[in-house]
Design goal:
By secondary structure, this protein is α+β, with helices and mostly antiparallel strands. Helices cover 33% and strands 22% of the residues. It has twelve helices and 18 strands. The protein is globular and about 55 Å long. The N and C termini lie far apart (50 Å). The structure holds zinc ion.
Amino acid sequence: MLFGGFWTILSLVAAVRAVADPPLHLTIRTPDELYDATALVATVRLKNVGNRTLRLLNDPYSVLTPHWETNIWDIRNGHGGVPEFNGVQVKWSPALAAAAQQYTVLVPGESRTYTHKLGEKMYNFSRLGAPRTYTVLLGGSSRSFIHVPDNGVGDKLNLETVTSKVEVLGTPSTIILGRTVPPVNTLRSPRLSKRINTFQSCNADQVVNISRAVFVAQQLVNESYHYLTFHATNCSYPRYETWFGSWTKQRADTVTSHYNHIRNGQLFSDTYNCSCDDPGIYAYVYPTEFGTIYLCSAFWSAPIQGTDSKAGTLIHESSHFIDNGGTQDFVYGQDGCKALAIQNPLNATNNADSHEYFAENNPYLN
Ligand SMILES: [Zn+2]
């Protein structure tokens, strides 16, 4: 017993030291008082306080990439009210981004400042009532960064997670008075009004590829829906349990409804925009802007079908639309999704990549 106690204390000390001494220092500054919620801006300063050069991957879910308006912020008022999120959901690959050298280099002592325009489009405060005092923080996972070591790219991908110490300068609250954002236009494209794709900034080759991917995606979604409805009373089969975890009627019904929404012709009436050329990114959508999918570099190098394919990416993105169920990106990749299915089946049934892998069904599971 004595030894047990001794070791417990030792490991606690070690854990505290690891947390107390991170190589990155991150400070967040927001205005103390604002009269217009659309002007809410967070200024983030990131400093390398360690003694080695850091190469931080330009993760679209980090403070390094303000142009990716992702939901990395934790904003709430005293009653727990949160503003409506109108930003983007991105499908990306750390491996592809690292291979394309999409990282930010910080030598020891170097700092960078980023401006995040939170009120302009990303967060809508208009439906939030009193109290109009908000705490603006970063979501937990956005305090960690992915470091690419010198030998980090090549045959073996050797990424490292670096955690920052977060400090909020001034008062951690923002008081928003007076005018708030007008409600966003909630008119959405009528679901079945048109059954023809619109292409924006796409060349002829891209149009051909999208059209093929749409065709395959539609087949995969139909097949997924029929599989789920065929096993509607009990879907305790490897394919379901691998991606969505232990079967319950309620969770399976949620998943089935997602595929049912997507298969109702939406893929053939979507608008596809090819203007994005970020390496490492497959695609993104604004979940509140039903029917528009933005395709990026990694999409064009993906196969039409199979794992992380073009067809699967379209299913992933379609599942994000609020009208289709509004899935999240809790985890990416097959390994992450398999682990999520075991640890948190509820989140798995609301995770976009899980929907993609179930539909791709590669390698085949019955
Ligand atoms: Zn996504």
